[in-house]
Specification:
Elements: E1 6-11, E2 14-19, H1 30-45, E3 51-55, H2 80-110, E4 115-119, E5 122-124, H3 126-132, E6 136-140, E7 144-146, H4 160-164, H5 170-179, E8 183-184, H6 185-190, E9 196-198, H7 201-216, H8 220-235, H9 238-252, H10 255-267
Helix pairs in contact: 1-2, 8-9
């Protein structure tokens, strides 16, 4: 399928989703907010890959929200009474728009397979919302992130704050949010925000694909369970998480997968694992299918 903002390929159980508007520094135009969740949900629904790598093109990973979208929210009408009513709706319409945009990144978190972000140059504004929703982050040495919204009189609203406060110390987050300064890749790594920093874009992509292949070699059901439990643990108490993982394994643990993983490891071969089932779309089928 042809997309305005992305190129998608699948090879060796790895889906590579690439932002492909380098001439516009991969700004997030209206199509971006429709296409990304459609791509991720389609990959997840069909169990088309065991890992997703999200990368980009050009000098920057993304320059964030295309500010021209703000102009489209300004109402106009020849009838003053109608215009006045339209203006009364603006706050409710903006709330719906923000919620829709938030879901664009939440889909990365809700996806059953790991999502790895390979970040070159700047991850600016909405780019921070994007990468904080990914499972792991990798950067080039010249990479940086900036919560840029404060520089244009905005409060970041599409997902940065609920997630980045779990990834960086609160004082650092507040400094970034209040000042809009750039955090370079080396600092991001020193604080644990990114997993690794690489000299250039090509070496980063090569290394991230190696990591993706390693993940793809593991039992998909176990990787799915790990992602689910880690995300649950972030938002719940230790006691609740211990109970949840007990219930999870009581219903999901597969001895055949464990035996196959052990055998494949001892025999130094690829494991013959069950794939994730296609995500259920409707409830009119039996439990035997």
């Amino acid at each position: 399928m042809k997309y305005s903002c992305f190129e998608v390929s699948i090879e060796n159980n790895i889906a590579h989703v690439v932002l492909n508007r380098p001439e516009k520094r991969n700004s997030m135009i209206p199509e971006f907010w429709d296409e990304l969740p459609a791509i991720i949900r389609e990959l997840d629904k069909d169990s088309a890959a065991r890992v997703i790598v999200l990368s980009s093109t050009g000098p920057h990973f993304t320059s964030g929200l295309d500010t021209s979208v703000f102009g489209s929210s300004i109402e106009s009408h020849d009838n003053p009474e109608t215009l006045e009513k339209l203006n009364r709706q603006r706050s409710a319409k903006l709330y719906d728009t923000i919620h829709y945009m938030q879901q664009t990144f939440t889909c990365l978190e809700e996806c059953r397979v790991p999502v790895l972000a390979a970040i070159q140059g700047g991850s600016i504004g909405g780019g921070v919302d994007l990468i904080t929703a990914c499972d792991m982050r990798y950067m080039t040495a010249d990479g940086f992130l900036t919560i840029f919204e404060i520089n244009i009189g905005m409060t970041a609203d599409v997902g940065t704050f609920p997630r980045i406060t779990n990834l960086l110390p609160e004082g650092v987050v507040k400094e970034l949010a209040y000042t809009g300064r750039r955090m370079p890749a080396a600092e991001a790594k020193s604080l644990g925000f990114v997993n690794e920093v690489y000299a250039d874009h090509q070496s980063m992509l090569s290394a991230v694909m190696d990591i993706a292949r390693e993940i793809a070699s593991k039992a998909p059901l176990a990787v799915y369970g790990s992602k689910r439990i880690i995300n649950y643990a972030r938002d719940h108490s230790t006691a609740d998480t211990l109970d949840y993982i007990g219930i999870w394994n009581a219903s999901m643990l597969q001895s055949a997968e464990i035996n196959e993983a052990i055998s494949a490891g001892s025999e130094k071969r690829e494991g013959d694992f069950a794939e994730l089932p296609a995500a259920r779309q409707k409830m009119n089928v039996g439990i035997t299918d």
